[in-house]
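Supplementary Methods, section 5.1.

A reviewer requested that the exact input to the structure prediction be made available. We therefore reproduce it here, unchanged from the version used in the analyses.
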Amino acid sequence: MTVIDLALKQRGPGGAYIGSDGRKGKPALNATSEASTNHVKKHIDMFPRMESHYCRRDTRKLYLASDLNITVMYNLYREMYCSDENFKPVSINVYRSIFRSYEPPLSFHVPKKGPMYLM
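The structure derived from this sequence is encoded token-by-token as follows.
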């Protein structure tokens, strides 16, 4: 039976297709597993956080040290965390996506004023 025959068989009184979509309910083949997501979140939890000095009451966002960025964190995750536990690391894009969707929201601390020098 061809696709067209199946569609003609499943049409309603007005002539419109009323059959179900066969794609629904199937998991994506490239979906990141729950274990991998939890592994990345556990790694992100290892880094100390601080509240913003400038807008504490206006945001829930927490800040990581200014010498970090996602690439540095990902390299640490891959080199130390995954090799110690023999765990296959996720890609940097997946790591970045998990970081951006993390609750509470995280960012990297950028000092508003430069260092003060004593003269």
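The beta strands are 50-51, 62-64, 106-108. These observations are discussed further in the main text.
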